[in-house]
Amino acid sequence: MGSLNGVKKTGNWLVFYLSIVSGSILAAIAIGWLSYDLVSRQLHLAAQMQMSQAALMHEFNRLMRYLVLPGGQSLVLPHFKMSANGLAHFKEVKHLFLLTTVIFLVTIGPALRSWRRDFKSSRQWRYIRPMQVALVMPIVIGLIASVSFDRFFVLFHELLFRNLDWQFDPLLDPIILVLPEQYFMLCFICFFVILEGLFLIILWRAKKSLKIY
C-alpha cells in the first residue's frame, strides 16, 4: 500500500512538472514565431538572401505552420530548395512539437486539478520544496549554455536526434541561412525565463499560503 502511494505521488509530481515544462516550450515556440520578424529585420536576413522581408516572412510562416499544425501536409518553400535530409529533420522537429502539444494537453488538466485540490485543503506548502529544487535545474543549464551556446546547441541536438540530418549544408538547405544562432538563442532564453517564472510564481503562492493559514 505504501509503495503504491509512493508511485502515485511520484506520478502526480511528474504530471505537474511535465505540464509546466511542455507549457513553457509551447510558449517559447509562440514567442519565437512572433519575434522572428523583428529578429530577421535586425539581422538583415532578407537582404542577405536577396529577397523582400514580406517574402521571407511568408516562407517562415509557412515553415512554422508546417511544424506546429497536425496533419500530413508536405513542406514546400518556394524560395528555398530543400534536401531529403533537411526535409527529414523538419519532419522530426514537427513530431517533437506535436508530442509536446499532446503532453501539455494531457497533463495540464490533472495538474490544475491537483493544484486546486491542494489549495482548497490548505496544502500548498507541499509545493515549496519541489519548486525550490526545480528552480535550480534551469539555472544550471542556463549557465552551461551561456558559457558556450555553440557547444550547448550541438549537445542539445545530439541528445534529441539520432542522426545528423540537423547539420544543414547551406548549399543544399539554404533555409539555415535565415535561421541563425541568435534566433535559437533567443528562443532558449525565452524558454528558461518562462520556466523559471512559473516555478517562482508557484513557489511564491505556496509560501504565501503559509502566511495566510
SSE series: HHHHHHH
How much is the average pLDDT? 91
Tally of strands: 0
Main β sheet profile: none
Question: How would you describe this protein?
Answer:
There is one protein chain. With 213 residues, this protein is an all-alpha fold. It contains 7 helices and no strands. It has helices at residues 2-42, 45-48, 53-68, 84-120, 128-147, 149-160, 181-212. Helix 5 (128-147) runs antiparallel to helix 7 (181-212). It is elongated. 16% of the residues are buried.
Structure characteristics:
76% helix; mainly alpha; elongated
Could you provide a short overview of the structure?
The protein has 213 residues and is an all-alpha fold. The chain is built from 7 helices and no strands. It is elongated.
Topology, please?
Layout: H1 2-42, H2 45-48, H3 53-68, H4 84-120, H5 128-147, H6 149-160, H7 181-212
Helix pairs in contact: 1-3, 1-4, 1-7, 5-6, 5-7
